[in-house]
Every structure is written in structure tokens, then in C-alpha cells.
Amino acid sequence: DAKTTQPNSMESNEEEPVHLPCNHSTISGTDYIHWYRQLPSQGPEYVIHGLTSNVNNRMASLAIAEDRKSSTLILHRATLRDAAVYYCILAGANSKLTFGKGITLSVRP
Amino acid sequence: NAGVTQTPKFQVLKTGQSMTLQCAQDMNHNSMYWYRQDPGMGLRLIYYSASEGTTDKGEVPNGYNVSRLNKREFSLRLESAAPSQTSVYFCASSETGGGLTEAFFGQGTRLTVV
User: Fold this and answer.
1) Angstrom distance (rounded) from CA B4 to CA B28
2) Using one digit for the tens of pLDDT, what is the confidence trace for B65-99?
3) Are the CB atoms for A45 and B105 separated by under 8 Å?
4) Chain B contacts of A95, Cβ < 8 Å?
5) Shortest CA gap A98–chain B (Å)
6) How far is B109 from chain A (nearest CA, A)?
7) Residues contacting residue B10 through CB under 8 Å, at least 6 positions apart
8) For A99, what's the count of Cα atoms within 13 Å in the CB-facing half-sphere?
């Protein structure tokens, strides 16, 4: 299975944009890029996913590099509630979601 | 809609005891999953079920059994609990397997084996 690489942690300020990077240099052509987040003491929560094109939803935007070897999750205005562990995951059409350690986002008031 | 419901939320077992963790989803999803999460770690897949009547091993299946009772329910059984199985267990479901659709997670079962 293709793996992803994320920094261990990142800090941001409240109400500022946040860019969370993810490297996946061994991604295959059929792998979807998923992002989930996990708030303290809760189960993971879906954020966004995409295949080739950039994606937007009410929570975030996903920017996918042209060669698909990296992607960036963009939170447009961070709030304190966005402090969580964010997981970047690759999943083929018939494969399982495999979680790494993720990146811990801290948001300063 | 309740989404994915796990019972119990907390459990303490003695070494060697058995128990079943229950999971039910009301979204008519085909695929269901069991993960465990140890402190400071990401989630590791124990078993998954691509559809009713099928199950498959994940990364860490040893010491566990599963049953996909029907489309709604996917249970995880510990036959003889060990302290190494102390963890938080999450059940998840998705409309299809893999990366096509999003997965929904339950709130977790916090299991301590003493």
C-alpha cells in the first residue's frame, strides 16, 4: 500500500488559514486521497477526499499537486474547534483505509 | 439518524475473560470496519467486512474474531482478553469499500484489560 508522510505537528492562529501538507510519492493512479480528523476523545471524522482535481466542501479545500505526489488540506479560517489530529490517507477503490500517525494541529487564540 | 453506534462505551475486563463489542449502523452501508487505537498512535485495522456475509483480516487480527450478523451489525469478539488488548476500539462504516466514499466512525469503546 502506498504510504503518506506528514509533519508531526503544526501550530496556527485562530481565524487564519491553515495549510496541512501531505506527501505521497508512491501514490498509484487509482488511489484516492482522503483526509480525516480526530478531535480529542472522539472518533475520526471525514473531512474531504479527491482523486485528481482540487475539491472544496463546507469544511475545507483539498489541493492536489499535478503529479499527485503531494496534497494540501486547507482550512480557510481556523477556529479553536479545529484543533485535532489530521490524517492524510490513500485508499484505492477496493482497499481499506489505513491510518498513519497524522499531524497534530494546535490553534492559538 | 444515529450513524454508527457502539456499545458499550467503557469496559473493564480481567485477563482471560471474553466479551463482544457491538456495532450497528443505520445508513444502509455495505462495508464495515473495526479499528483499535493505542495511546498516541493512529488507528490500526483489525477486521473489515466489504459486504454482508464477508469478512477479512486487517493489520492486527490476532486475538479477535468478528461476525457480520446482517447488513447493519458488525461485532468484534475477544475470546480471552489480554492486557495488550487494552485500547480504544472504533467501528466504522462506508457505502462502499476503499476510497470511493467517506467512512463514518462511532464514538469508540474504551477497553481496559487488567
Assistant:
1) 11
2) 999 989 999 999 999 999 999 999 999 999 987 78
3) yes
4) 97-99
5) 7
6) 10
7) B109, B110, B111
8) 31
